[in-house]
Amino acid sequence: MILRSFLREKLTMLLKEIWNIETSIPILYPDQPKFGDYSTSVAMSLAKTLRQKPLDIASTLAEKWEWTDICRLEVVAPGYLNFFVNESLLDTLIQGKCLEDQYGSSDLLEGKKILLEYVSANPTGPLHIGHGRWAALGDSLARLLRYAGAQVWREFYVNDAGNQIRLLRETIQAVREGKEIPENGYHGAYITDVAKQTEDPVTYILNWQKETLKNFGVEFDRYFSEKSLHDSGMVQKTLDFLKSAGVAYESEGALWLRTTDHGDDKDRVLVKSDGEYTYFAVDIAYHQDKIKRGFRHLYNILGADHHGYVKRMEAAVWLLSQADGVETDFRIIIGQLVSLYRNGEPVRMSKRTGDMITLEEVLEEIGRDALRYYMVMRKADTHLEFDIEEAKKQSEENPVFYVQYAHARICGILRNLPSNLPVPQGTIVDSPEARLLATRLLRFPEIVQDAATALEPHRIPQYLEDVASVFHKYYTVHRIITDDLQTTANRATLVKATKNVLALGLRLIGVSAPERM
RNA sequence: GCGCCUGUAGCUCAGCUGGAUAGAGCAACAGCCUUCUAAGCUGUGGGCCACAGGUUCGACUCCUGUCAGGCGCACCA
After folding, report:
1. For domain A395-508, is the CATH number 1.10.730.10?
2. Integer Cα distance of A424 and A441 in angstroms
3. Which of A99, A398, A422, A461 could join A394 in a cystine, given CB atoms 3.0 to 4.6 angstroms apart?
4. What is the ipTM of this complex?
5. What's the whole-model pTM score?
């Protein structure tokens, strides 16, 4: 049972029944225990439309509230409804739902087939820290969406065709022959290494990227080759389709797409006057392919350095959908850039300088858990300031260890548990601190749903820190293992539920939950 | 010049799609281990939520404008 949904459902019902109105009902987590475990301000927002005092509306709702076996309800001026979860229900949930392997999962997004595209770096150089962020975000998001019931297919679009690739090959060729690197060629230190390989440079670099991502715990269901779109004729097919749909037109020797029909500043070129396809055209073919494969929910994580591309792509997918007669849900998540520092000194991230720090290096230096945590702990659309030395220096007091420590601490307790414990019986939530912890644990499914629907993975670490904090406080005040076996068994259950939530939450962001630290 | 993102404690950032006295972690200071992991806990100080208007019973949250920073504005990818 997801309590918040239950409350919302019943309130919706009552509003319909009493006043015959429908409205969205905000359910909040009050910041003070005396205001309940959940609360709503719906009575205040309805005051105007119902022409009644908020307090009267709240009172009427309270009178009709018949689910006191779930929560009791208080009316507080100027019109809040505060819900207190019933103690025995808390006990039941803690030793039931909260201990389940799949606790927090739901069927909220049941039936949705989502294609999630992320990273999609050019195979012309090693991945940098920014890619690390999109990778961690994408992977976590995939886990979240799946946990919320969606079918998620993860793709990395490999730009293995076009100018950049040609330039890379020319660069490598030149280095191998001891010639000068061509203008606009690649100059990174890694070029020398790549040139030494007998393998094709593109294949080599792509495998290198795959290896890094694998070490980072980031997986894909498919690496989709851009070149394959050319080879199969998909690009041409898509262009013909757009032409026949009347949304592409020729002008000045080029083929254009009417992206201005859907919010873009100017129409965009699909085929250049020299006959070559633009990157845009091929990308449209890729998205047409996604649609043809039956996906209606297309989510892309894009680096902020490419956000200028968003409008035209949205227009393109819209035009495709119109022409295809299908409805698509196309969303672009902009991942802001990561500013990398070392001891306060900015570190260059450019692919061309050769003086960069790669994702691989950062990963080796600070470790997978810490890096993944740092990359998803902030909202995707805020710039991330990341100091390598600080992440290491703080490694004893930084958030990822704080959360992991709570988990390890619980494991320690569980190892010390007497073997002859009875089954939990009677009151489990036996103190204000226990109550605080228990009600936090009940939020887990709600947080997962919020994070999934808002496409905001950062809510998970945020929540986990909250849980860890509440647990640590509980731990310092109460002993779990006591002389009384029944009490021990009961408290151990609460602690196990906490461990379960921490472990599940950490898994959602791809961070390990260690048994010992 | 135009567009997108950001502006909250000294620093890094949350703030639950408009609600109750604005939060956390670092950093500073003062305390707490003969008892399950002190990588923890408790307390103190620190804020005109960039600024100015507006909408609202109610704004950090929504709208407009200004300022500051980041990133983009190709028949590149």
Report:
1. yes
2. 18
3. A398
4. 0.95
5. 0.95
